[in-house]
Amino acid sequence: MGLRQQGLYVTAPVTLDGAPLFRIAALAQTTGSALPIDTRVLLVENALAQLLALNPDSGTPVYDPKSVKVEVVREGSQYALQAVDAHHAAPVTIVTVTSNDTHVYGTGDSALATQWQQVLQSALVTALNKREPQNIRNNGMRVLQGAALLVAVTLLLALPWWWLGRRIRKLHHIVEQRHESIDRNREAAAGEEVEPGLQQRRTLALLMRAAGPEQRLRRWTVLRASLVWIDVLLWAAGITYALLLFPKTTAAGEFILQAAGRIVLVWIVAAVVDRLLELLLVYMAEAYARAGTTSEERARRVLRGPTITRAVGGFKSFVIFFIALLITLTALQIPIASVVTIGGIVALAVGFAAQSLVRDMLNGLLVLFEDQYVVGDYVMIGDYNGIVENLTLRMVQLRDLRGYVVTIPHSAVVQVVNASRNWARLTYRIAIDPSADLKQALKVLRGTLEALAEDEAWRDAIVDAIEWIGVEDVRNNGIVLRSSTRTGPMQQFELHRVLNQRVLEAFAAEKIALGVDPMGVPVPSANASPNPL
Q1: How many other C-beta atoms can be found within 10 angstroms of the C-beta atom of residue 138?
Q2: Which H or E run includes 65?
Q3: Considering Cα of 490, then 493, then 494, then 500, what sign does the dihedral take?
Q4: In the chain, where does the domain assigned CATH 2.30.30.60 lie?
Q5: CA 190 to CA 231: how far, in whole Å?
Q6: What's the number of CA atoms in the CB half-sphere (13 Å) around residue 369?
Q7: Gap between the Cα atoms of 161 and 261, Å rounded
Q8: pTM, full prediction
């Protein structure tokens, strides 16, 4: 019956066609001539039923919806609400405003009577109009037209749903094939010593090839699910509207709006909003990737985008469904404050129990937003170095030169050396014999570096062929020449091997004898820091 205890009073709702109009009150412990609450409710609803009665011959309402009027009249010390129309001179008393009602509402009896009068006037006119035979026929036509429209909308939505299903299946196949290629590349790299630059470029190229289809797959999957939820929402809204049009089904429609149906509708809306925001995040990630000014920056953004959107998407889903839960609790008349308090205590306990996990995830967010490293980068973290194979909010996985996979929680990362950001530097050293022609040796070294920068195979790998060049050290057994070359990221490892070969060939052609550098190494050397080899 919807009874509610309010201090010394108990209240109950007055309903018309299942819709609550207002609540009337009575003392919890009735004494003397005071009516109990259930009796008051029964008297009010009987009066409303009398006003909504139908003529047995014509099926039309006995009271005229065009002339029916709810009036406030004074009966002794109390106000009463009565209904009359053009065909009934004798008024029908609907409800009397008692002192119990005014105490519960905290207002005067005249003001409360006026408030109830407005509610009853509107509700009675609406209810009587629903019972008019012509309006019932018109509403029936509206329902048929609405149903036809919903069927048409469903069929229209089914076409893109079916097309997206075909595209999703094809993309699944493409993504699986490309991930198999990545796995084969990793297995091949684990079985042989592959230079970090070459391995990084292979891994990055394969991941970039897989990133595009994965983003499209995610976008289309979200869009396909959104179409289903939108269709469900339209049908739920259409059915509820149809139920509210007819007197015999209004109570069911009101039940849907007021209780279970409203809860279901809240969760459907939450699911639709979640899917649409997920779709927006995917589009934002794609726009973010396209905004890169260089190919490398675009590649890094493509690889960062999915992880960031997953993290933001998870937080977004939590907020949406938490709000839906609070609305559900409100509909069930469960105090939200106590639930939030209990949830806060539980969250605090979980936070203490999983401090390292929380730190991992917070540090992971910083890694992503600060772009410290992405999948495909060659990094050194503590005692470990290798290609970043996997990156989540909790941890990073590296594959080192031996093919081992190293898993490092983000909370354990103190310092990161990234060898694949923007550019690298090759510092090259070679010792010549003290009797050799120093000017000629410098000229040959400079010419070799410039020729390498002009070589079509290495042109893109060299940013600045000669940052500086000169004599670094002079000893009785050798003069050390040194140069600095700026290269593309991860190009320095391969470049210094090629440079060694070309410099040795050029010195041999010019008959420039090699010396011994201060470290006692009678061959050229290169410090392509950081160099794991």
Answers
A1: 12
A2: none
A3: positive
A4: 365-418
A5: 50
A6: 8
A7: 26
A8: 0.53
d(CA 24, CA 533): 86
The pLDDT tens digits for 302-317 are: 666 666 777 677 778 8
Count, residues in the chain: 533
3-state secondary structure of 30: coil
Helix/strand/coil for 530 = coil
Report the Cα 101 to chain-centroid distance in Å: 48
Question: Tell me: the pLDDT tens digits for 205-230?
Answer: 555 555 566 667 777 887 888 888 88
Structure tokens at 31: 């004494």
- Contacts of residue 428, Cβ cutoff 8 Å, sequence gap at least 6: 482, 483, 484, 485, 496, 499, 524, 525, 526, 527
Distance of alpha carbon 436 from alpha carbon 406, whole angstroms:
49
CATH, range 365-418: 2.30.30.60
How far, in Å, CA of 389 to CA of 528, rounded? 23
Amino acid at 387: I
CATH 3.30.70.100 domain position(s) in the chain:
424-527
Q: Side by side, which strands form the sheet with 78-85?
A: 69-75, 78-85, 88-97
Residue type present at position 223: L
State the CATH class of domain 424-527: alpha beta
Q: Are 11 and 36 in contact (CB under 8 A)?
A: no
CA 130-136-138 angle, 5° bins? 115
What is the Cα–Cα distance from 500 to 498, expressed in whole angstroms? 5
Sheet order of strands, 462-475 included: 462-475, 478-487, 424-432, 525-527
